[in-house]
Amino acid sequence: MRNHVTGGRCPSKATVTGKTVVITGANTGIGKETARELAKRGGRIIMGCRDMEKCETAAKEIRGKTLNPHVYACHLDLASIKSIREFAERLKKEEKRVDVLINNAGVMRCPAWKTEDGFDMQFGVNHLGHFLLTNLLLEKLKESAPSRVINVSSLAHIIGNIDFEDLNWEKKKFDTKQAYCQSKLANVLFTRELAKRLQGTGVTVNAVHPGVVSTELGRHTGLHQSQFSSFMLGPFFSLLVKSPELGAQPSVFLAVSEEMEGVTGRYYDVMTEKEPAAQALDDEVARRLWEVSSRLVGLQEDGPPSSSKTEGVSEPELVQTPELA
């Protein structure tokens, strides 16, 4: 049963020698193990992380264990538009190519925190941050084609809903579970719309649910916060979850597998293509989310950013970003 639930290792033995791989949230959990596995396969690995001390430590460890000297720690705070733009500019100036972008970083069921720019933390980090980063790196990805974008989503998207009237949780009572599910649905919708826009460019994009993985991501959930729950349910939970090493395999599969050549706009449950929830297949919602997201992060396809408010989305207040680690 446990092998069925956790999946297995990436069956492809393909290497990424000569390729540059950018991974967000790579200092811990799935991201760190993805970086380690792709470093083993010869890639030039750019680890984008908020906590530089942890990132430097992780990069040093990976270099030592894989004997790959091309593993680099770079500062990236997905809760800050300024930081995202600085990170992207650095990559565009310093890197000759970007072959794989793995949008892995995320926060899960945290309190009602806001990003530096005033967005709901989960929507801001999990969706808007990666939306902006991907768009800023699109030209580099196109120049490096065939290239791949991988969005780490979640099965939680199936109960998500994009509330365009209150994306920022300012009109209704904050629900951290629903906020998380909304952000994960946004990942799948973003994947769908981006794939349409990238047709013919040689850049593919797919979303993946990595499975239930034991990482720091769930540190705000009830199971981790309650000693009773941890004691009583922990042993059963451990039978159903996979290690970060196995949790990284779906991302590795999408990044290197020969089977994935030319495949785009799809949703994978671990390493098996599945149809996502019905609301994730709504092209009109995907298009609208793209337009709203573009305005919120200051990306405009025609002309400078608009100063007008967006379809029921209040202009966020600037606030201090809390520590996530």
UniProtKB/TrEMBL annotation:
One of its GO terms (molecular function) is all-trans-retinol dehydrogenase (NADP+) activity. Residues 297-325 are annotated as: Disordered. Pathway: Cofactor metabolism; retinol metabolism. Its EC number is 1.1.1.300. Keywords: Lipid metabolism, NADP, Oxidoreductase. It is an enzyme of class 1 (oxidoreductase). It catalyses: all-trans-retinol + NADP(+) = all-trans-retinal + NADPH + H(+). The keyword Methyltransferase does not apply. Belongs to the short-chain dehydrogenases/reductases (SDR) family. This is NADP-retinol dehydrogenase.
